[in-house]
């Protein structure tokens, strides 16, 4: 609860508009999530300004506004008039972020709850919730909201603090040096809890040692008489304590998660993991184990509904803090039994085909991924198939590649099937292959839909006795792996209640980390959908080869390849051997046809990569045969016939030579005749006469080969345009290119309804300004303003593929973006 008087005193803010509302239920800084009777805080960020949405906040029910003086002064008269007509209290400060921090410090000082700060690499939120649950058995306890754990989120969360709260359990996060110290100065915690130290956010800390120093700041920030609880099984924490033994430990009491009553002697620890939760027992060896009549050691037994052995440390932390606060042991233990998995944190959910999902999609770091895999293996046991769907682990700096590879090296111990989603996650798959995992059980994907579809295929292939498969789904926050969970839920309509990031704000959030404010977006789901449309159009008897020439027409060959292969394509096409190399290096083992010229010095490389090669002369076939024999390999070949394209291929008129080449290709040692094809020059033209001529010529060649019993297994001719308009040209396989990317082959051959463009070129407006009449715009001043004109400047240039010439672009609409009362239309014009 936020009281207006407290806020004004804490921030020295100015009340610019008074209303009947003098207290507010909570703070909100996102109009997509604001609730009635809340105070909306307008925060300026790198990608947006909350002041642009104050009227939206009021319409959503906000009855208070916290605004910045500099922006408030420059509101339009229309906005000021709209605000004046509303029953809303307006507080104006210099900086809303600083004001929130001032309020957080002040309200803790006014209501003075005992502040318990929880930090660590992983497990912070679960530990915070466990501690708050235990304390709530005897005390009124505040817990920071969700995982709001930084200099913005914690003050926002503390808007929910009330005078009745005796304890405040607050999670501290950090993504840059000095943040823990700054949070502690704001919160002044009396008790600190450190869960563990393992690699996270290393892009900002550069090393695990620097991260350990940052997290250790919690200990050095505690006041004299403070208490520090730590995981005694973490060697990095133990080392940190040794470094601070003289500096801090004289004034701060340190408690390991293991209770003092267990002593420092070696203990036996047994943790049982099941679907009902975990049960842990720790026994301190007593003298009774070594001699008759001597007393037995101490025993501690705890249980909860949390899943995973690693959560026993969470329970020990909450247990120890509860005892230290004077709560009776039985009450502590009863409180722990009520702990349940939170959304996105090893939360079990019913899945399709009698599977069980382990939704662990909140976030991912090496330690938490390994814990998830161990839990998957323990819960599945020997009776169920173990499937892991893993997305990228991010924010690991230079450690990212090593982190993914380390998971891949161990994953064979925990799973039967591995599905990866994302580029970093492919390193897990590569290492799993090298570790001996069956390649048929490893699937690499680039979209949520393809990852889920891969899991569906695995489940469909399992015997009925194995249908109770267990599926772990995990990835970093930005990878949004909860979307995979939703696609596999037996009751997907429950997703909004059970999964993380389901609020309207999250639903609209797209993470981007572009180096520049101009970028290209590739919709792989559109590519997958377009591929399915093509496959459905040609039917199951006709294969689909997707052309990936020129880096998949600029869409990214690797991601496109994985996507189309998951959505109906059975073969890939490239222009050169060098284009096939990165596909094979990425462990894409699907058939690949090289359309173009393969020089003799590249033939061995083609054989090494296992690609199919286009041949069009006897000499080409013989050279390829010699290379194959030298390497003791076999290469598949496709004979190309030039029926009117005028490019690579043996001319259709040379029918005897074609027959001889096909026969020789089927007989030469090291060659396997796989295909025969041609390429249409005008399939996308309004006049179909030329493509019909080419088709007739190709059919004549095909008939002659069939008469000789030489028809290859795969005959193909249709590019995108012919696939769409000439069914008789589809033969055994089609070769769509431009249609896969959602573009019309030409103005005369349009894509059917349902196809979607995959590429979007986007940029942000860098400046909006008025230019007087008679002024030229940009190079050459090819456009001169006829009247005072409001223009928008875009940060786009040569590096983005946007050329200065030709000068006359006509009128090209680049962006329509509404911002407050301004609609910005940006174009170039001769």
Automatic annotation (TrEMBL):
A GO cellular-component term linked to this record: cytoplasm
Keywords: ATP-binding, Cell cycle, Cell division, Cell shape, Cell wall biogenesis/degradation, Cytoplasm, Isomerase, Ligase, Nucleotide-binding, Peptidoglycan synthesis, Pyridoxal phosphate
Modified residue annotations for N6-(pyridoxal phosphate)lysine: 549
InterPro entries to which the protein is assigned, alphabetical: Ala_racemase, Ala_racemase/Decarboxylase_C, Ala_racemase_C, Ala_racemase_N, Ala_racemase_pyridoxalP-BS, Mur-like_cat_sf, Mur_ligase_C, Mur_ligase_C_dom_sf
Catalytic site positions: 549 (proton acceptor), 779 (proton acceptor)
Keyword Nucleotide-binding: yes
Pathway: Cell wall biogenesis; peptidoglycan biosynthesis; Amino-acid biosynthesis; D-alanine biosynthesis; D-alanine from L-alanine: step 1/1
Catalytic activity line of the entry: L-alanine = D-alanine; D-alanyl-D-alanine + UDP-N-acetyl-alpha-D-muramoyl-L-alanyl-gamma-D-glutamyl-meso-2,6-diaminopimelate + ATP = UDP-N-acetyl-alpha-D-muramoyl-L-alanyl-gamma-D-glutamyl-meso-2,6-diaminopimeloyl-D-alanyl-D-alanine + ADP + phosphate + H(+)
Name of this protein: Multifunctional fusion protein
Lineage: Bacteria, Bacillati, Chloroflexota, Ktedonobacteria, Ktedonobacterales
């Amino acid at each position: 609860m936020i009281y207006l008087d407290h806020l004004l005193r804490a921030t020295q803010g100015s009340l610019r508009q008074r209303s009947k509302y003098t207290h507010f239920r909570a703070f909100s800084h996102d109009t997509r999530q604001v609730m009635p009777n809340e105070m909306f805080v307008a925060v300026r960020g790198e990608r947006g300004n909350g002041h642009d949405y104050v009227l939206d906040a009021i319409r959503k029910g906000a009855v208070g506004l916290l605004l910045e003086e500099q922006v408030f002064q420059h509101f339009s008269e229309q906005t000021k008039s709209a605000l004046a007509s509303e029953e809303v209290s307006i507080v104006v400060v210099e900086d809303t972020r600083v004001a929130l921090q001032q309020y957080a410090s002040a309200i803790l000082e006014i209501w003075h709850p005992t502040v318990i700060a929880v930090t660590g690499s992983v497990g912070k939120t679960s530990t915070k919730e466990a501690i708050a649950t235990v304390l709530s058995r005897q005390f009124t306890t505040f817990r920071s909201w969700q995982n709001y754990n930084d200099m913005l989120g914690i003050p926002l969360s503390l808007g929910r603090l009330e005078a009745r709260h005796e304890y405040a359990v607050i999670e501290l996060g950090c993504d840059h040096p000095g943040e823990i110290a700054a949070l502690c100065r704001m919160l002044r915690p009396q008790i600190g809890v450190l869960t563990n130290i393992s690699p996270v956010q290393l892009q900002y800390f550069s090393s695990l040692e620097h991260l350990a120093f940052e997290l250790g700041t919690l200990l050095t920030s505690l006041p004299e008489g403070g208490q520090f609880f730590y995981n005694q099984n973490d060697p990095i924490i133990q080392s940190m304590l040794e470094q601070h033994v003289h500096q801090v430990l004289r004034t701060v009491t340190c408690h390991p998660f293991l209770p003092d009553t267990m002593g420092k002697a070696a203990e036996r620890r047994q943790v049982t993991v099941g679907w009902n939760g975990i049960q842990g027992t720790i026994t301190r060896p007593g003298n009774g184990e070594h001699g008759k009549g001597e007393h037995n050691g101490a025993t501690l037994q705890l249980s909860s509904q949390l899943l995973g052995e690693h959560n026993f440390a969470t329970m020990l932390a909450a247990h120890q803090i509860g005892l230290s606060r004077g709560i009776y042991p039985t009450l502590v233990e009863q409180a722990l039994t009520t702990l349940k998995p939170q959304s996105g944190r090893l939360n079990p959910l019913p899945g399709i085909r009698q599977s069980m999902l382990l939704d662990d999609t909140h976030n991912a770091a090496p330690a938490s991924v390994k814990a998830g895999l161990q839990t998957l293996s323990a819960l599945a046991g020997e009776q169920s198939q173990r499937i892991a769907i893993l997305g990228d682990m991010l924010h690991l700096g230079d450690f990212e590649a090593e982190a993914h590879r380390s998971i891949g090296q161990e994953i064979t111990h925990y799973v039967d099937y591995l599905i990866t989603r994302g580029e970093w996650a492919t390193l897990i798959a590569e290492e799993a292959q090298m570790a001996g995992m069956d390649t048929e059980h490893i699937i690499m994907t680039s979209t949520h839909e393809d990852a889920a579809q891969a899991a569906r295929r695995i489940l469909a292939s399992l015997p009925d006795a194995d249908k109770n498969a267990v599926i772990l789904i995990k990835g970093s926050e930005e990878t949004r792996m909860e979307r995979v969970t939703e696609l596999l839920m037996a009751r997907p309509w429950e997703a909004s209640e059970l999964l993380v990031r389901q609020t309207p704000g999250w639903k609209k959030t797209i993470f981007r980390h572009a180096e520049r404010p101009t970028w290209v977006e590739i919709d792989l789901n559109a590519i997958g959908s377009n591929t399915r449309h093509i496959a459905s159009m040609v039917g199951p008897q006709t294969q689909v080869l997707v052309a990936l020439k020129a880096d998949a027409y600029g869409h990214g060959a690797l991601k496109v390849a994985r996507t189309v292969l998951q959505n109906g394509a059975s073969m890939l096409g490239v222009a050169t051997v060098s284009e096939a190399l990165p596909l094979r290096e990425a462990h894409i083992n699907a058939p690949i046809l090289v359309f173009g010229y393969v020089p003799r010095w590249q033939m061995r490389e083609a054989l090494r990569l296992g690609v199919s090669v286009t041949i069009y002369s006897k000499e080409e076939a013989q050279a390829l045969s010699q290379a194959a024999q030298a390497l003791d390999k076999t290469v598949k070949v496709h004979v190309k016939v030039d029926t009117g394209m005028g490019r690579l291929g043996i001319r259709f008129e040379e029918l005897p030579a074609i027959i001889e080449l096909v026969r020789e290709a089927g007989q030469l040692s090291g060659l396997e005749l796989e295909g025969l094809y041609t390429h249409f020059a005008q399939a996308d033209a309004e006049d179909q006469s030329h493509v019909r001529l080419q088709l007739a010529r190709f059919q004549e060649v095909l008939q002659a080969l069939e008469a000789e019993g030489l028809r290859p297994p795969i005959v193909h001719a249709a590019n995108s345009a012919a696939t769409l308009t000439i069914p008789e040209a589809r033969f055994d396989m089609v070769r769509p290119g431009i249609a896969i990317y959602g573009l019309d082959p030409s103005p005369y051959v349009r894509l059917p309804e349902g196809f979607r463009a995959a590429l979007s070129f986007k940029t942000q407006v860098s400046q909006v300004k008025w230019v007087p009449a008679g002024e030229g715009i940009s190079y050459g001043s090819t456009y001169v303003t006829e009247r005072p004109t409001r223009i928008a400047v875009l940060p786009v240039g040569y590096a983005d593929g946007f050329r200065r010439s030709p000068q006359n672009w006509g009128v090209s609409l680049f962006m329509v973006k509404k911002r407050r009362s301004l609609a910005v239309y940006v174009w170039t014009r001769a």
